[in-house]
Fold each of these.
Amino acid sequence: MSDTRPTTSDVTAAPDAHEVRGQRIVLEGVTKRYPGQETPAVDDVSLEIPAGEIVMFVGPSGCGKTTMLKMINRLIEPTSGRILIGDDEVTHRDPDELRRHVGYVIQGAGLFPHLTVAKNIALVPGLLGWDKERTAERVREMLDIVNLDPDEYADRYPRELSGGQQQRVGVARALAADPPVLLMDEPFGAVDPLTRQRLQDELLRLQEELRKTIVFVTHDFDEAVKLGDRIAILEVGSRVAQYDTPEAILAEPANDFVAGFIGHGAALKQLTLTRVRDVDLHEAAVAHVGDDPATAIAAAEALGREHVIVLDRADRPLRWLSLRELNRPGALSTVSRDDDLEAVTLGSTLNDALDSMLTSSHGVVVVTGRRGRYEGVVRIETVMGAMQALHTGAHASGRAVR
C-alpha cells in the first residue's frame, strides 16, 4: 500500500488558511481493476490532498493518473477503497449531483459548439436551478475573472475564439457554480507554448483569488513544478513514488525513478521556483484611456522613459505607446488591446519573465495581479540578478546539481 498522507502540520501550514474555499480530498486504499487485465490500473493508493492547494498528478503514460482523477468525480467507479471530498464519501452520493459540485476541465475546453460563451458558462448554474438574473450576473463575473470582457465575448460562439480563449471559457464554466474542487485533465496540452504559459499564469492568478482545491493531471514535470503546491509522481499502477512539495522533490528525490523522471537540469528547475512576486518591481510610465496625452508624455519624460503603458478603466494593461504615438491627435481616446503584449503575473516564475523579456523590445515585462490589474514591471537586470543569487545559494548550501 502506498500511504503518502502529509502530516497534520503540513496540511495546516498553508498561508491564509482562513481564506481557503476548497475542501480536502482523501483517497483511502483506492484500487481500479478492469476486466481481463491482470494488473490494476490504480493499485491501493492512499493520498490526502489539502484544502485550497494545487496538487499535480504527474508520471509516464499509462501510470493511471487520469484514472485517479476521474474516480474523484466518479466518471470512473473505483473497484475498492474510499474517496472523500470534505467529510462526504463520494460513492455515497448521486453521481450527477456530485459532478455538479465538482468543476472539470479537459484538454480543448470541451465547449458545446452550438451554444454561446454565456450559455456554456451558465450550464451548471441552470442545472442547479439558479434564476436567470443570478445566472447572468455570474456569467459576467466569471468572464471578468478569466480576463475576457463580457460585453465582447458573452455572445460569441466557441468557433470564434482562439484556443487559449476557449480554454479560459472552459475554466469559467467549471467554476461557475463555485465548486470547492476543480479537476483538470491535461487542460493546456493542446495549445502553443506561449499560450500555455499564459494559461498557467492565469490559473495561478485565479488560485490566489479563489483558493480552490485543484487536482491537475499533466505529463510535463516543468508544468508540475510551476503550478503545484505539491506533486504526486506516479509509477505504473499509480504507485506514488513521491508526494511532496516541488522544492523537496527537486532537492531530495525519493528514489532513482523520481531522479530519472526529473531528468537533467534539476538545479535550473530550482530556479524556476522563484516567483515574480519575490523580486522587486519597478514603475513604468503609466496612462489611462481618456487621459490627456500631454500629461502622459510629461510623466514619461520625467522618468526618462520613451514608452508609456496604457491601462483600461479597470487598471488592466492594454499596450505600450511611444511618445511619438502619444503626440498624435486623440492618442488616448480609444486604445485597443495588444494581444501580443508581453506580460506575466505575480505568480509567474522568473524563467517565464525572462522568456517574455527576450521577445520584448522594452527591456521590461508588465506584471499583473488580481483580476489582471497592473502591478508594475520587472527588469531583465532584476531577473538575472535574482537567478544568479539563487544559483550561488544552491551551491553554497551543498545541493546536488544534476
Amino acid sequence: MLQACLNGARSPREHHHLPVRPEQLATAAAAAVGAGATDLHLHPKHPDGTDTLEPHIVAAALRAVRAAVPGTPLGVPTGAWTAPDPQDRITAINGWTLLPDHASVNWHETGADDIARALLDRGIAVEAGIFSGTDAHENFNRSPLRDRVLRVLAIVTDPTHRGARTTATALLERIGDPPAPVLLHGSAAGTWPVLNLALERGLDTRIGLEDTLQLPDGEITSDNAGLVTAAIALREASRG
C-alpha cells in the first residue's frame, strides 16, 4: 500500500502547490491517485493553512476529495497540534458530520486511548502513530485498544539522510510483533532512505508533501504526484 500524505501541518508558504482549500485537496488527491497512490492522508485546514478538526472544515475537505477520487480510503490526523486539550479533539470528532475512513492517533500524546475510542465508536478506523524517540510503543502495547487498530504507523522523526535508516530499524525492533500491518515513513532528508527500507522489508509506504518537498535526487518536486511517481519507480526497481 502506498499512502499519499497531501499537505501535513505545513504552511502554504513552504511549497507553491501545497493544497489547503478543499478544491486544492481534490486536485492534489486526483493527481496522486492517478500516479499510483492507493490511500490518502490529509490535514483539513483553515484558509490560512493552520490545521483544524472543526466539523464543517473536515466535511468540506472530505466531500471535495471523495468526489475527486471515489472509493479511495481517506484519513485525517488527530494530533495535539490541532487542539491541545484531548477533550476538545474528542468533541470535534463527535461533531463530525462527514466521516473519514481512518484517522491517526499519536500514542505518545496524552489521551490517545480516549481519542482512539471516540473514533472507533463512530466507526472510524484507527492508525496507531508510534513516533521514534518517544514512549509511544510502550503506551500502545499497554493499550486495551491495541488489537483494534487498522495499521501501525512507524514514524521516524530523524530528519537526516544518514541517520534515519538506523533510527527506523531501531523503531521497528521496539515495535516488535505488531497487531496490524506496519506503514513505515520518514521525514525531510530521511524520507527516501526510510521508504527504501520499508520496500526492502515489504512494509506499507507513504510519501507526499507532508513528509518531504524533495525528490530522491534532491530536486524540489512540482507536486504530490511527482513524489508518488518517484516512490512507484523505486518500488518497481526494488522488485527487479
Amino acid sequence: MKILLVEDEPELQKSIRDYLAPEGNIVEVASDFIVAGQKIALYDYDCVLVDITLPKGSGLDLIRQIKDRRSKAGIIIISAKDSLDDRIYGLDLGADDYLPKPFHLPELNARIKALMRRKLFDGNNEISFNEIRILPHERRVMVHDSSIFLTAKEYDLLLYFIANKNRVISKGALAEHIWGDHADALNNFDFIYNHVKNLRKKLLEKHCEDYLHTVYGLGYNFKTPE
C-alpha cells in the first residue's frame, strides 16, 4: 500500500513511518502544505493521512485538492485540532475517517486497513478472486487452497493487480506504487519485468489461471477470462 503522511511533527512522523513500513507499506512524507500539494499533483496514493494544522496552509484545503483531482485515495484526518466543526467539515469535504491525537499506532494501522478493505475489496477481511484467496492480515496467498510463497514485492504486485483487474497498468505506475515516489527518477523499469515474471511463474506452478498479460509498449493487464 502506498501512503502519503502529511504531518509536520518530526517525532510523530518518524513513529508512524517506522510502524507502517515494516508491514510492506510505502510511506511517503510531506511536512507542509506546499510539499503535500506538489506530491498529490504528481503521484497517486492509496491512502493519505493528513493533519489539519500545517505549516503554509490547511489540511482541509489539501483534502479539497485531493477531491478536485478525483483521486481514489482514502483520506484519514489525524489532528489534535478536535473541534466538532473541523471534524464535520473535513468529512463533508470527502475525508473517510478522523482520528484525533494522541492515538495508538495499532489503531491507526487498523483504520487504514479497514478503509482499504472498504474502498478496494467491499470491506472483506479476505480477498477472493476465482481460485486465488488473499488473507491481508497474514499477508498470505492461497491458490486452490494451497499456500504460495511470495516475496513482499510480489505480494504487493498481486494485490495491486487484483484491485485494478482488467486495466492496463504501465510499468511506471507499478514502479511508483510499489517502490515509491522516487521511482520516476530511475533510468528504466526493467526490474519490474523480473518481479512480474516471477509472480506469474509462481501462480502458474500452483495451476492458477494465467491472468497476467503483457501489453507490449504499455505495461501489464491482470485480465479476467471472458
